[in-house]
Amino acid sequence: MLIWRNDAIRTIYVTPGQDLVSDEAQALRREFQRWAGHRTERLVLDLARVQAIDPTGLETILALYNWLRTTGGELIIENASAELKRFFRLMGGGGRLTISGTGWPRSKDTA
């Protein structure tokens, strides 16, 4: 999992390295617990390498979304599959959720 924090613009960028299932979702949740004390205005979750999300992964994303919503922050979902985009659009009410089609630039090695 790649995680990068830009404190100047209060943004956290996260790219899971694999499907967001049990172990990867729990690792993301542990990271999330470390961020809870920081002022974060947006979290960019790049799902380019994610083909599947299990209930633990969905629960983790919902927890991130709810945390950001209570602090006035925004969750930005990038490179989600069509099915995931539909799901995220359904949960978009009541908070700031952006679903984007772009993500981090890919190097020739990862393309």
CATH class descriptor name: Alpha Beta
Number of helices: 3
Shape: globular
Computed CA radius of gyration, to the nearest angstrom: 13 Å
How many beta-strand elements? 5
Helical amount among residues, as a percent range? 25-40%
Instruction: Tell me the strand percentage band.
Output: 15-25%
The profile of the biggest β sheet is: 5 strands, mixed
Fourth-level CATH superfamily:
STAS domain
Could you tell me the CATH topology label.
Transcription Regulator spoIIAA
What is the N-to-C succession of helices and strands?
Answer: EEHEHEHE
Low-pLDDT residue intervals, each spanning 5 or more residues:
103-111
Task: Please tell me the overall pLDDT.
Answer: 83
Structural class: alpha/beta
Largest sheet, order of strands side by side?
1-2-3-4-5
CATH architecture: 2-Layer Sandwich
The end-to-end span amounts to 17 Å
Number of domains: 1
Question: What do these coordinates show?
Answer:
The structure is a single chain. The protein is of the alpha/beta class and 111 residues long. It is 35% helix and 23% strand. The chain has helices at 22-35, 55-70, 82-90, and strands spanning 2-6, 11-15, 42-46, 74-78, 96-100. A five-stranded mixed sheet has the order 1-2-3-4-5. Strand 2 (11-15), helix 1 (22-35) and strand 3 (42-46) form a beta-alpha-beta unit. Helix 1 runs parallel beside helix 2 (55-70).
